[in-house]
Amino acid sequence: MATKKKLRTSGLKAKSDNVKRKISPAFASRAEQKQLISKIDNIELLSLKVEVVDEDLIKTLNSKKFSFEINLKITFDKANNMVILTSNIKIFKDLNKDLFLGEIYSKGQFYIENYNDVVDNETNLPTSVASLFAGVLISTTRGFLIIKSKGTILDGAMIPFFDARKLFKGSNATHK
């Protein structure tokens, strides 16, 4: 029987019911292939900053030429079985990043029922789980940006789709 997932939204926050997931072998090492029992506790837009730029520059903006710098921070709340991801995504005019246009901050709180089975040494999260949570947060942030940037210089700027596992290559402090 398939697990049903309900999504409730209120303003710019999202929550869901518990969902049991077994991490796909394609995304996990043998040690990571354990049952993940988690839910989205909360995802929210913290802020959207839009720079004021010259009117003539606005006319030259091409939505396909935006570039993005994506930064994530992972924190742990063991007392509440939570992993908290905060994203800061900076938006630039083009690939040269010569003109900063704005940035968007968002935060996702993920409840893990079997926290002690998933989080090692209180601060090591398997890359497969960190990638799953990051993908959810960034996808939701993409939606926040689309909704909140209407009528601004960021209208049409869309955070690109990418493999969230790439965000965790070479990292060592906050995940496994």
Protein topology:
Blueprint: E1 7-10, E2 13-16, E3 19-22, E4 35-50, H1 55-60, E5 67-77, E6 82-92, E7 100-112, H2 115-118, H3 127-148
Antiparallel strand pairs: 1-2, 2-4, 3-4, 4-7, 5-6, 6-7
Average predicted confidence as pLDDT: 78
Strand/helix succession: EEEEHEEEHH
What is the CATH architecture term?
Roll
Structurally, the number of domains stands at 1
**How big a fraction of the residues is strand?**
35-45%
CATH superfamily, by name, is SecB-like
Q: What kind of assembly state do the chains in view correspond to?
A: single chain
Instruction: Sketch the major β-sheet.
Output: 7 strands, antiparallel
What is the total tally of β strands? 7
Note the total helix count: 3
Low-confidence region ranges = 1-32, 172-176
Q: Cα distance, first to last residue?
A: 32 Å
**Class derived from helix and strand content:** alpha+beta
The CATH class assignment is: Alpha Beta
Query: Rg, please?
Result: 18 Å
Form type: elongated
Structure description:
With 176 residues, the protein is an alpha+beta fold. The chain has a single domain, classed as Bacterial Protein-export protein SecB (Roll). Helix content is 18%, strand content 36%. The chain has 3 helices and 7 strands. Strands 1, 2, 3, 4, 5, 6 and 7 form a 7-stranded antiparallel β-sheet that branches. β5 and β6 form a beta hairpin. The longest helix is centred in the C-terminal third of the chain and has 22 residues. The radius of gyration is 18 Å and the shape is elongated.
Task: Give a quick summary of the entry.
By secondary structure, the protein is of the alpha+beta class. The protein contains 3 helices and 7 strands; from the N terminus they run E-E-E-E-H-E-E-E-H-H.
